[in-house]
């Protein structure tokens, strides 16, 4: 495929054919991830490939019962990983640190860059993916199921396989609403209304076209997309709860040392 077609043709795929992804193709996708940029070329990430059906059934709950966890032939989980590097430092009699929040952020960025490289390679080969925010939100459960040692935390994950659906690409905010030149230019109210105008319409229509989502919206008395996002979809309470989950797991995984 042409590179621009891959970029602009991205869709989240939640329904998959019952077709195996060959090891040769999977290796090509993983090789693309490994070529991603990384901080200091440390490559402080690990990629967990999950094909086992029984393990995917266990991950289904941790991933908030999203159907693609079971239906897709492969799950990829990208983890911030300083376990490997810390062991390398140890055997070379170098100071062993990288056990703080900054180190986690470096590993998380490395993992995310690798994940997106793999995603582009997969889509270029005709496969589909669907990123799952549950990877970080329930990192403790997923880390337990994937047997992650200290200094390893799941950050990004997605399903992978051949698409069994062909959804239309979702809209994006206009470029002028996202890109700032030289310095950040804050938004006036009229700018916000203009930037989100199409999103308000398209997002609302998507909810109204889905009987289950429409019923939920009506039961909650929601009047616009912003209310859907903050009252139904991404509540303050849920984000506070997930925040505590992540922070506690970072401490448990030895990423919160302050000395």
Briefly summarize what is shown.
The chain has 259 residues and is an alpha+beta fold. The chain has two domains: 165 residues, NADH Oxidase (3-Layer(aba) Sandwich), CATH 3.40.109; 63 residues, no CATH class. 51% of the residues lie in helices and 11% in strands.
Description:
Helix 3 packs antiparallel against helix 8. The chain has a 4-stranded antiparallel β-sheet with strand order 1-2-4-3, sandwiched between helices. The protein is an alpha+beta fold and 259 residues long. 28% of the residues are buried. The protein is built from 13 helices and 4 strands. The chain has helices spanning 3-8, 23-34, 53-62, 68-71, 83-91, 101-124, 134-137, 139-145, 189-195, 197-208, 211-220, 225-233, 236-252, and strands at residues 45-50, 74-81, 128-131, 152-161. It folds into 2 domains: 3-167, 3-Layer(aba) Sandwich (NADH Oxidase), CATH 3.40.109.10; 175-237, no CATH class.
């Amino acid at each position: 495929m042409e590179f621009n077609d891959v970029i602009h043709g991205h869709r989240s795929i939640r329904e998959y054919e019952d077709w195996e992804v060959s090891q040769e193709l999977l290796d090509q996708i993983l090789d693309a991830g490994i070529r991603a940029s990384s901080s200091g070329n440390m490559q402080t990430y690990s990629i967990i490939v999950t094909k086992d059906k029984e393990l995917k059934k266990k991950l289904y709950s941790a991933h908030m019962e999203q159907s693609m966890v079971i239906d897709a032939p492969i799950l990829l989980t990208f983890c911030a990983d300083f376990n490997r590097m810390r062991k390398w430092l140890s055997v070379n009699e170098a100071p062993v640190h990288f056990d703080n929040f900054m180190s986690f952020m470096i590993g998380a960025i490395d993992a995310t860059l690798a994940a997106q490289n793999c995603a582009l390679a997969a889509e270029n080969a005709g496969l589909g993916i669907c990123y799952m925010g549950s990877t970080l939100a329930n990192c403790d459960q997923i880390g337990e199921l994937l047997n992650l040692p200290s200094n390893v935390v799941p950050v990004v994950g997605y399903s992978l396989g051949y698409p069994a659906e062909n959804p239309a690409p979702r809209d994006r905010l206009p470029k002028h609403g996202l890109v700032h030149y030289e310095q950040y230019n804050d938004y006036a109210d009229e700018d916000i209304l203009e930037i989100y105008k199409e999103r308000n319409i398209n997002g609302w229509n998507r909810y109204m076209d889905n009987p289950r989502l429409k019923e939920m919206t009506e039961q909650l008395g929601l009047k616009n997309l912003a209310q859907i996002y903050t009252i139904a979809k991404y509540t303050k309470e849920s984000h506070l709860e997930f925040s505590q989950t992540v922070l506690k797991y970072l401490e448990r995984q030895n990423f919160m040392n302050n000395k």
